[in-house]
UniProtKB/TrEMBL annotation, chain A:
Annotated Pfam families: ATP_bind_1 (PF03029)
Translocase found in the keyword field: no
InterPro entries listed in its UniProt record: Gliding_Motility_GTPase, Gpn, P-loop_NTPase
Lineage, opening ranks: Bacteria, Bacillati, Actinomycetota, Actinomycetes, Kitasatosporales
Protein name (Swiss-Prot/TrEMBL): ATP-binding protein
Superkingdom of the organism of origin: Bacteria
Coiled-coil ranges per UniProt: none
Organism: Wenjunlia vitaminophila (Streptomyces vitaminophilus)
UniProt-listed CDD domains: Ras_like_GTPase
Keyword Protein biosynthesis applies: no
Protein family (similarity comment): Belongs to the GPN-loop GTPase family.
From TrEMBL, chain B:
Pfam families per the UniProt record, alphabetical: DUF742
Region of interest called Disordered, as start-end residue ranges on this chain: 1-21
Superkingdom of origin: Bacteria
Annotated Basic residues bias: 1-11
Name the UniProt record assigns to this protein: DUF742 domain-containing protein
Length: 195, 117
């Protein structure tokens, strides 16, 4: 019954996922652009055999509570409210959280070049799900030593069109530019002739 | 993390008046926007607390209502399913896949982000 109410809210949500490994600055980025202080909501997931050590004979199915940080940006002139959802730090849990991905327009995958491997699962996951994303290299001290091509290789990114940008998640303008880079990427992909 | 939510997470039974699920619950994704509707006289205080958070013209996502009440998503979604059935809320679904691939709309969102942030 996918109907809206007759007197439905004037705006609709536009969902963007902010992913990346633990401690990479997801909540910082959300907070930099959000009109509200980031909020946290929780869900209980049943994870069968995920990240659970095999202990002989013990049922390897477990309930886990995942917490998700999010913020919002209301854009009245566009008739949308952008909701930015930061994935929980433990990748192995949010991968089973289908509702988090459902309806998402795109994603920003944050990368810390000191811990590149931590963001590989997110890249791999979005490529498999065909969710468009940009990679945002969070340059904590203003610079980072790798070229875009080195990062593309290290993250084993298969789509050469996926943008890689540098950003400082603490900066509002820099985080805004990352959002705009994602929008540009979504617009490129939505155009009928897509090179 | 909302501290006021700690320790007052409702039992689902109490929050939904004993109804654990409704057919309409599945409509309400975490990013569906909700706004209060109608008269809430005589409703349980927790229901009214939820409705007070989204009085028009305010509309909040299901996830935001859950966060502000300090509840998990599932019990909030189920309560909202009951409120929807009783005509106590209006809802607006998130943009559809067709809309999120609409160049005109995407361009407008981009322009508004650039202007507003």
């Amino acid at each position: 019954m996918p109907n809206n109410s007759d007197d439905a809210p004037a705006q609709a949500a536009f969902k963007i996922i902010v992913a990346g490994g633990f401690g990479v600055g997801k909540t910082t980025l959300v907070g930099s652009v959000s009109e509200i202080r980031p909020l946290t909501t929780e869900e209980r997931l049943t994870t069968a055999g995920i990240g659970v050590d095999d202990l002989d004979g013990i049922e390897d199915k477990t309930d886990t509570t995942v917490a998700m940080d999010f913020g919002r940006i209301t854009l009245p002139e566009a008739g949308v409210v952008v909701y930015l959802f930061g994935t929980p730090g433990q990748d192995r849990f949010w991968f089973v959280w289908d509702a988090l991905l459902e309806g998402a327009a795109g994603a920003i995958v944050l990368v810390d070049t000191r811990h590149l491997g931590r963001s590989f699962p997110a890249v791999d996951f979005f490529e498999n799900r065909r969710l468009p994303f940009v990679v945002g290299v969070n340059a904590f001290d203003g610079h980072q030593p790798y070229s875009a091509e080195q990062i593309r290789g290290a993250l084993r990114m298969s789509d050469p069109q996926t943008p890689i940008i540098e950003l400082d998640a603490r900066s509002r303008t820099s985080s805004r530019d990352a959002l705009i880079a994602l929008m540009d990427h979504l617009i490129d992909r939505a155009r009928p002739v897509h090179a | 993390m909302t501290s006021r939510g700690r320790g007052r997470r409702p039992r689902l039974y109490a929050a939904t008046g004993g109804r654990s699920s409704t057919a309409r619950t599945s409509v309400l994704t975490m990013d569906t926007l909700i706004t209060a509707a109608g008269d809430d006289q005589g409703l349980p205080s927790e229901w009214r607390a939820v409705l007070d958070l989204c009085r028009p013209p305010r509309a909040l996502a299901v996830a935001e209502l859950a966060a502000r009440m300090g509840w998990r998503l599932t019990p909030m979604t189920r309560l909202l399913g009951v409120l929807l059935e009783r005509g106590l809320i209006h809802h607006r679904l998130p943009l559809s896949p067709a809309e999120t691939c609409n160049v005109v709309l995407l361009t407008r969102i981009r322009e508004c982000l650039a202007k507003q942030l």
